[in-house]
Amino acid sequence: MRLKGKVALVTGGASGIGYAIAERFAIEGANVAIADVDGESAEAAAERLQKIALANISGIAMDVTKEDQVESGVRDVLQRYGGLDVLCSNAGVQHIAGVHELTYSDWKKVTSTHLDGAFLTTRACLRHMYRSGRGGTILYMGSVHSKIASVLKAPYVAAKHGIVGLCRTVAKEGAQYGVRANVICPGFVRTALVEKQIPEQAELLGITAEEVVQKVMLKDAVDGQFTTTDEIAEAAVFLAQQRTLALTGQSIIVSHGWVME
Ligand code: NAD
């Protein structure tokens, strides 16, 4: 029970990596609010987790790009649980296109979901963490694409690099209030976000779906394996349970050795 008594908010928690983190946080004893733009799925996910959790799980509808929804969602979490110790800013989308063909609205959708969403949720949670005197943890879902670029993913790569800058700033500003901020940088994880892009990349690169998996996604993983949602959730628990500021402002790559630094 490494997170017993903590309160965590996980954005994009209705599916994929966010759900796995919410599940692991709950197993480790945390009260978890699952926020997602798909409010029904967030509630369904919370109901599922409540069956295995000892603590209190809730689902809330929250579009992280909407200031009013983020503010009211965080207020609801504080009212319900009386505090907030961990924000996992995880909500994300992908769009596959070359820069020359990318529409402005697709650029804005991807960068806004990742960057505006990270900013708005961070701001709302920090205000509470600073006031409470209890400090806290901000965990950002970056990517290997916080460190390197790949073709066809410009807004995603730009936003994921930007998250590292936000994290480092929050680590510096938050230190005096006992707030840590770190980024988890997963390699490819076989979630809905990745399943969707396999045929899209195949078409644009003129190769088969199998070749996208083997030659694009897993080519440099040391064991040729996808990273799993469980492996990312384990990293999230590790970072969320830290008690000092020794580990802050870092971006930790969890990618089966795809990228090393
Ligand atoms: P996913 O599609 O399974 O889950 C993303 C969730 O975010 C969904 O439940 C979706 O409804 C929600 N969401 C989307 N827009 C939102 C918004 N505006 N407000 C609130 N919720 C919103 O994808 P995933 O793979 O689990 O991705 C989760 C995070 O992990 C993303 O930030 C993604 O960039 C990152 N990531 C994924 C991979 C991977 O290979 N799957 C690798 C590196 C980083």
Automatic annotation (TrEMBL):
Q: Which Gene3D superfamilies match?
A: NAD(P)-binding Rossmann-like Domain
Provide a GO biological process annotation: monocarboxylic acid metabolic process
Which SUPFAM superfamilies did the record assign?
NAD(P)-binding Rossmann-fold domains
> What InterPro entries does the record point to?
NAD(P)-bd_dom_sf, Sc_DH/Rdtase_CS, SDR, SDR_fam
Q: Where are the transmembrane segments?
A: none
One Pfam family name is: adh_short
Do you know which PROSITE patterns this protein is assigned to? ADH_SHORT
User: Would you identify the family this protein belongs to, as annotated?
Assistant: Belongs to the short-chain dehydrogenases/reductases (SDR) family.
The molecule here is called 3-hydroxybutyrate dehydrogenase
